[in-house]
Amino acid sequence: MGARNQTEVSVFLLLGLSEDPELQPLLFGLFLSMYLVTVLGNLLIILAILSDSHLHTPMYFFLSNLSLVDICFTSTTVPKMLLNIQAHSKDISYIGCITQVYFFMVFAGMDDFLLTVMAYDRYVAICHPLHYTVIMNPRLCVLLVLICWLTIFWVSLIHILLVGQLTFCPGTELPHFFCELAQILKVACSDTLINNICLYVATALLCMFPLTGILFSYSQIVSSLMRMSSTEGKYKAFSTCGSHLSVVSLFYGTSLGVYLTSAVTHSSQRSSVASVMYTVVTPMLNPFIYSLRNKDVKGALRRLFSRAASCS
């Protein structure tokens, strides 16, 4: 009964990126700016795709889902961080922390899955162009996204149910700016062996399988491009993959950077700073990557702004 009460009354303390009072206004302004750019940029991508019939294709259907997930992904962590800075507080309730852990895992996993589905879409478009519309039909596209959501919902729920069995000491400190599962397990007062095993297995399956799928898709795409005789055809085919490949490199590059930083250094502050790259910076850059490198998206955005201007 005592252990149960210990969990119920616990309040975690998020130490954030820095405890220097002079840096807090700078951090608040920086993260608020990045958050607003992320939300606005991804919303514009979604609106452009919804409003332009030319973009009602599988590739842009997956892109709109990715933009929605990026908004939710950033909204899971940044608003609470901004609220704590503004209120000069480090507190986050037990329920709030567990909720943040759950949705962080859901949206991070969805990012991973959607990038894999998008790689498959590019593989079919380039390697099997004549059968593309038959294979990537609307029903399959919706089914793939639903499978991704259901899979990550249940995997994340299993982790949360296991965390619910742990006990925590009152006033536990988390050396991070948000609640992350790995950090939660490190500060638990009870045995976390089962939790860690599930975490490693889930990470291996949910990261390695999607990454393997992406690498396989692009190996087939490169092989197909090598067989093309037309230079113009090669450029056109590769240009459709350029934005996706950039986002994949950014997502996995920053995630790997966080992992290596955590493994090499014992400084929790450096690990937290590295985490900013894939939790805040990557979702912010994705709209720019897709809009700057994609003439269809740029055209849709121009038409969207023109309609907005004519209505005002």
Automatic annotation (TrEMBL):
Keyword check for Cytoplasm: no
One function term, GO molecular function aspect: olfactory receptor activity
UniProt cross-references to CDD domains, sorted A to Z: 7tmA_OR7-like
Main location: membrane
Transmembrane segments: 26-50, 62-82, 102-120, 140-162, 193-216, 237-260, 272-292
Keywords: G-protein coupled receptor, Membrane, Olfaction, Receptor, Sensory transduction, Transducer, Transmembrane, Transmembrane helix
Membrane topology designation: Multi-pass membrane protein
InterPro entries hit by this protein: GPCR_Rhodpsn (IPR000276), GPCR_Rhodpsn_7TM (IPR017452), Olfact_rcpt (IPR000725)
Domain G-protein coupled receptors family 1 profile: 41-290
Cellular compartments annotated: Membrane
Cellular component per GO, a single term: membrane
Pfam families: 7tm_4
Cited function: Putative odorant or sperm cell receptor.
UniProt name for this protein: Olfactory receptor 7D4-like
Lineage: Eukaryota, Metazoa, Chordata, Craniata, Vertebrata
